[in-house]
Amino acid sequence: EVFVFENVIGLAKWAETAIFELKGYKITKNIINSENFGIAQSRKRKIFIGSKKRTIEIKNPIIKSVKSVREVFNSIKDNWGFANH
């Protein structure tokens, strides 16, 4: 049995996982930022992963560079036929 819970930093509290630990879940907690996943915005989220069998590691990816939305659109050769987009 496994679950994943995510929420904004201000709303979720780390202590909320205590009830799952009492029920036998091994809990992993981490804060991730969407920009570390190649998304063109910075949005921090709390992530909880619970597992009955083992602790599940949350790995933060290594992104060498983040592209802006403009850079992504400019990299499209024909802009899908849309002028000035």
Automatic annotation (TrEMBL):
GO terms for molecular function: methyltransferase activity. Keywords: Methyltransferase, Transferase. It comes from marine sediment metagenome. This is DNA (cytosine-5-)-methyltransferase. The keyword Kinase does not apply. One of its GO terms (biological process) is methylation.
